[in-house]
Amino acid sequence: MRTLLKNAREEKGIKTRELAQLLGIDQALISKFESGSRKPTKEQVAKLAQVLDLDYETLMVAWLKERILYEIGTDELALKAMILAEEQIKYNVSFVRKSISKNLQNILNEIDALKTKLNQFRQFDSFRIAQALELEYTFESNRIEGNTLTLRETDLVINEGLTISGKSMREHLEAINHVEAITYIKQLMERNFPLNERELLSVHNLILRGIIPEDAGRYRRVQVMIKGSSHMPPQPYIVAKEMEDYFIWYEENKSKMHPVILAAEMHERLVTIHPFIDGNGRTSRLIMNLILLQNGYVIANIKGDYETRMNYYKTLETAQTSNNKEDFLLFIAQVEKECLERYINIIEQ
Question: Which SUPFAM superfamilies does UniProt cross-reference here (predicted)?
Answer without folding.
Answer: Fic-like, lambda repressor-like DNA-binding domains
